[in-house]
Amino acid sequence: MRVLVTGSSGFLGAAVVRALLARGDTAIGFDTQARHDGSADGRLVQVKGDIADSKQVTQAVTAHGPDAVIHCAAIVSVLSSVDSPVQIVRVNIEGSLNVFEAMRVGQVKRCIHISSEEAYGAFRADKVDETHPLDPVMPYGICKAAVEQFGRTYRDLHGLEVINLRPSWVYGPGLPRARIPKNLIDAALAGQKLHIASGADSAIDHTYVDDAVAAIIAALDHPHHRYDAYNVGSGTAVSVAELIAIVRELVPGAELSVGPGPYRHGDRIEIVKKGALDVSRAAAEFGWRPRFDIRAGLAAYVKAVREQQTISRN
Ligand SMILES: NC(=O)c1ccc[n+]([C@@H]2O[C@H](COP(=O)([O-])OP(=O)(O)OC[C@H]3O[C@@H](n4cnc5c(N)ncnc54)[C@H](O)[C@@H]3O)[C@@H](O)[C@H]2O)c1
């Protein structure tokens, strides 16, 4: 299979590219930054391009003729979406439309679009399934919901099949942003004290990166989707205080603490009420189930960072 992966140099996109190559597929990476250095017996093609530039996306699709697209490219930050809403609309909405248009022109049918649980806005229950209303409040989530809806329009008008995966917060080795649990693990392993000003009670579902990649590949492979949206998470929400307790068990002596109240993006923007994602639809439809609960995921993450640190020292 030939798969075009947008955002192929990012945290999730790069892991997806590795998974595709590992099973013998050809990956066409499309990103503003080059990360992979080609090769893998010619099964890895790296295109440097901007999804906000329609010509570049169309050219990549027509030149490389993928069988499907995994769309990971985006500005991934609630905080930047609040600070620069126009920029996030340009990349996350217009860029996604450029991807859909290029697929229409190049006659590529299936797109696995990495949406987000942010599309739900404030959770109206402690655990939500895909029938929860899309009522996003942050520009980042508004863009995700808009792209999902454009995907439905492209399905009805042009026969595209846009499958929206809605992961909760993805974590694991290589997580590029300074938020929980990365900041907790980095501080713990560096022997540094870390106090997060607020967030003790915010309960959030976290997805281990390997589970997110497995869900993306399973959705790509599933021959017939009855639904166009699937939650991807661990199925359980944990408070920031619980996260800290687990990291302290994994790194004895870690000096981590959190103040009361809701968690804030970048210590500034209060998160909306979150909770657990019900992941039973993906399990029932295409057999994907999370393999990592939060304890197993954090243990794997800490182990990987420790190994990386040992390699860097030697
Ligand atoms: N990581 C998470 O917690 C999480 C949770 C839910 C959904 N998602 C979604 O998953 C996808 C991947 O997220 P990630 O964590 O890998 O983010 P990331 O920031 O690591 O990767 C995004 C990639 O997109 C690329 N990119 C940005 N703008 C681009 C443009 N204009 N043209 C081409 N490439 C561009 C970046 O260079 C980067 O390599 C995103 O759509 C994100 O919204 C992520």
- Give the ligands present: nicotinamide-adenine-dinucleotide
User: What does the overall shape look like?
Assistant: globular
CATH class of the largest domain: Alpha Beta
Give me the CATH superfamily of the largest domain. NAD(P)-binding Rossmann-like Domain
Distance between the termini: 39 Å
What count of structural domains? 2
The name CATH uses for the topology of the largest domain is Rossmann fold
Largest sheet: 7 strands, parallel
Kindly report the oligomeric state of this protein: single chain
Question: In terms of per-residue confidence, which ranges show pLDDT below 50 for 5 or more consecutive residues?
Answer: none
What does this structure look like?
The chain is α/β, with parallel strands linked by helices. It folds into two domains: 2-171 and 207-232, Rossmann fold, CATH 3.40.50.720; 182-203 and 236-276 and 292-313, UDP-galactose 4-epimerase, domain 1 (Alpha-Beta Complex). Helices cover 42% and strands 20% of the residues. It contains ten helices and 16 strands. It has helices at residues 11-22, 54-64, 78-83, 85-106, 139-158, 182-190, 209-221, 240-250, 280-286, 294-313; strands spanning 2-6, 26-31, 44-48, 68-71, 110-114, 127-128, 161-167, 169-171, 194-196, 203-208, 229-232, 237-239, 256-258, 264-265, 269-270, 276-277. The protein has a seven-stranded parallel sheet with strand order 3-2-1-4-5-7-11, with helices on both faces. The chain has a three-stranded mixed sheet with strand order 8-10-12. The protein has a two-stranded parallel ribbon with strand order 6-16. Strand 14 (264-265) and strand 15 (269-270) form a beta hairpin. Helix 4 packs parallel to helix 5 (139-158). Nicotinamide-adenine-dinucleotide binds at residues 7, 9-13, 31-33, 50-52, 72-76, 91, 95, 114, 116, 167, 169-170, 176.
